[in-house]
Amino acid sequence: MSFDLAAARARLKAGFPLVNGHPDVAGVLRDPALLAALGPALAAPFHDRGITAVCAPEARGPILGALVAVELGAGLVLVRKDDRNHPGADRRVESPPTWRGASEVFQTRSWDLSPTDRVLVVDDWITTGSSLAAMRALIEQSGATYCGASVLVDKASEATRDRHGVHALVRFDELAATTHAPPVVD
């Protein structure tokens, strides 16, 4: 039985919680049915790409990345933000300014990727593409092949999506326009 990506997207859009009018990724992870669909949905366009490693930036990237890595039969490469504990981290890269206006420094280990790896980046969100650009630089520095990115929520421009080969499950504007009542947090 093949995976129905369109049905998974529709379920996600219908059930994506909003907190104070903002899409709540943590709420998606809390819903067992939505969580179960994330790995297959994020992996679907990449099954035939020979992915050997999934690169997942901190903070929620590793959660989603692990689901996708299992689905694709690939390994998981963790990428931590600088000054976080990552034993053996010996490779760093600075991102362009993020949506907050400041750069982030990411770190990983040089031996986690090799020139024979075909790498997919998985993250929860894309806005400016700055974190994705940093992940791509780490992958390319290792000599591995960057194969694209898969994200849960897309708030990026078309040019950014095209430049990085991004597959997104839902667009931010689709979620922001939903009518289900958001919880109010004081």
Word description of this protein:
- With 186 residues, this protein is of the alpha/beta class.
- The protein has a single domain, classed as Rossmann fold (3-Layer(aba) Sandwich), CATH 3.40.50.
- The protein contains 7 helices and 9 strands, in the order H-E-E-H-H-E-H-E-E-E-E-H-E-H-E-H.
- Strand 7, helix 5 and strand 8 form a beta-alpha-beta unit.
- The C terminus is likely disordered.
Task: Please give the structural blueprint.
Elements: H1 5-15, E1 18-19, E2 22-23, H2 25-30, H3 32-43, E3 53-57, H4 61-72, E4 75-81, E5 91-94, E6 105-108, E7 118-126, H5 130-141, E8 145-154, H6 158-164, E9 166-171, H7 172-176
Helix pairs in contact: 1-3, 3-4
> How big a fraction of the residues is strand?
25-35%
SSE topology string? HEEHHEHEEEEHEHEH
Tell me the number of strands.
Answer: 9
Known CATH architecture: 3-Layer(aba) Sandwich
Give the overall silhouette: globular
User: What's the helix count?
Assistant: 7
